Amino acid sequence: MNIDQADPDELAALRAAFDVDDGGESALGWVTVRAFEAEHGIVLPEPYRTFVAEIADGSSSGPPEYGLLPVAELPDDWGDDEEERDLSEPFPLTEAWMWEEDEAPADDADELLEQVYNQGSIVLGTDGCAMNWHLIVTGPHRGHVWLISDVGAVPFGSQFGFTTGGPGFAGWVRHWAEHKPWYDAA
Length: 186
Fold this sequence. Notes:
Organism: Streptomyces violaceolatus
Protein name: Knr4/Smi1-like domain-containing protein
Structural class: alpha+beta
Number of domains: 1
Distance between the termini: 20 Å
Oligomer: single chain
Number of helices: 5
Pfam families: SMI1_KNR4
Helix content: 25-40%
């Protein structure tokens, strides 16, 4: 997984998976991507960065189930849209966390939970029922995709043991394209 330089083969696979053939009209363009990054104090990981700049900023086809959101949007079921998200602060997790099963003091868990939802990630989209896919943009898991739901958070990719899919945005999309329906596919 190379999060600093886009691989042309991965970009071709992303273009094919989303069936985008509009000559880049649905893409943000590099000026807008750089402005978004400057506003939030981040650099988007590749190949997602090039995808939104040159191919498409969102897609009505998946992944996830309800389509890929534009880079600056949140799912309709997100909740409090007024909550301030800080993409420049590191995403706090490096391993799965099921807060429904956690015995940590409530105050500690609430603070960490707030960070999980609001720090260091952009929301790629939703599979419904508050199951949201996040691309980590800052912190040790930068470039990885996580599923964050109402009961816990798990990283996507075979190295984490939750799926056979490859890591990062390209691996997540490839797994979807090869296994529709997709998440639980071996």
